[in-house]
Specification:
mainly beta, Immunoglobulin-like, six-stranded mixed β-sheet, four-stranded antiparallel β-sheet, 12 strands, Velvet domain-containing protein
């Protein structure tokens, strides 16, 4: 499920001023947020950023490498992956929603790679620490729909660009489109979980291209081989 319309949340600008340019490394301590499943709530999930944005980009330039998030969805039938999607939201480094425009396709459908349909875990990123943020449901992570395997979905954002200078991060919110528990003929969108990229700076002028790490390159290559339109270089 994708949309060509940019997604904006909140009101007012919370843009922070950026510091001096620096090359920086592409390693980061990204956070991992999770939700737990229940009989009536959304499936349990763990979301993490698999491919981070560059440390710095020019205003209006494509965010490259493309940001990719991964979601481990528990107690979910593989056929339900088609109803899972993610939205990219521009935030400040302290995760406040900003009024600055995040251009490009900010909605992404979930892609399940063949080797991960049976519930294998996605590759981990070095330097990551985990914390949890509830996306709804009870504290039981395996109850409710036992017998269903977990699935791992990728969400690739391939043409994002930021409309003003400053320092930002990109929050990835994961949702599921499902029948209403009170009216099976009505469909609702339910939040599952989220994660946020590391912060990056946006400047007026173009910045040097940063290459993805080895793990990030592997993720992008697998998605490209599966049919996703992942750019090899920034446009």
């Amino acid at each position: 499920m994708s949309s060509s319309k940019s997604h904006r949340q909140g009101s007012g600008s919370h843009k922070t001023s950026s510091g001096s340019k620096s090359s920086g490394s592409r390693s980061s301590g990204n956070k991992e947020y999770s939700s737990q499943s229940s009989e009536s709530g959304p499936p349990g999930a763990q979301v993490r950023i698999l491919v981070q944005p560059p440390n710095q980009i020019g205003m209006g330039d494509m965010v490259w490498p493309s940001v990719v998030a991964g979601a481990r969805l528990y107690n979910m039938h593989p056929d339900e992956a088609t109803y899972v999607f993610a939205m990219a939201v521009l935030v400040t480094p302290d995760e406040q929603v900003t009024g600055v425009h995040l251009g490009g396709n900010t909605a992404a459908s979930g892609t399940v790679l063949p080797a991960e349909q049976s519930g294998r875990s996605g590759g981990s990123r070095s330097g990551g620490s985990s914390s949890s943020r509830s996306g709804g449901g009870s504290s039981s992570s395996s109850s409710g729909r036992s017998g269903y395997p977990s699935i791992f979905c990728h969400f690739a954002f391939t043409d994002l660009h930021v409309g003003d200078v400053g320092e930002y991060a990109i929050r990835i919110d994961v949702f599921i489109y499902k029948p209403s528990p009170t009216d099976p003929e009505e469909w609702i969108t339910e939040f599952i979980a989220q994660d946020t990229t590391r912060s990056f700076a946006v400047y007026h002028e173009r910045c040097a291209i940063e290459r993805p790490t080895e793990d990030e390159s592997r993720t992008l290559r697998r998605l490209r081989n599966s049919g996703e339109r992942i750019p090899n270089t920034p446009a």
